[in-house]
User: What shape does this take?
Amino acid sequence: MSNPTDLFNQAKSAATTVASTVVNTATSAVNQATALAGQAANSDAAANVTSSARSLGSQAASTAGSLAGQAHAQAHALAPTVIPAPAGGATAEGVDNRGDLSPTDEVGKAKFEKLFESRHTANELKDKGILKGAPGDSLAGKRADLEKAMHKDQLDKDIAQRPQPEELVKKGILNPDEAPPAQ
Assistant: This one.
């Protein structure tokens, strides 16, 4: 079990990082709003610039609030006994909470069963080169890529160290008329 102090330090670090991001975002928004306000003072399109500045300010405030809520939720997840749960059951933006996607009617269930039964086995996927290792091996693809790269490197090394055609002719491995012309 993790030490509560470590969890608290992790939560504090996560909150500090998010707070720093929020401050940087807000500072950037203020700088942009200031620049837009300066343009408004020197421009005929003052109404448009002012509107843009207001929109930018509200976006910055919304983003800062969202980031702060996410930081609080992450801190609570790290140390639920130390950090209280976020109020209002806040969830991350963009998450679809509409419910279960399982088929409910008989046609949907039959279609799902048919697709489930016709799926390929792990051995078939391995034979086709889709699955690189055992189904639970999350690093199998990276391992296969590494082995391929190592094999390529070894071949390149062997090709670079191969004997010259003149040496092969001297050893009797290559006939003189088969040797490529010297460059």
User: Anything to note?
Assistant: The mean pLDDT is 79.
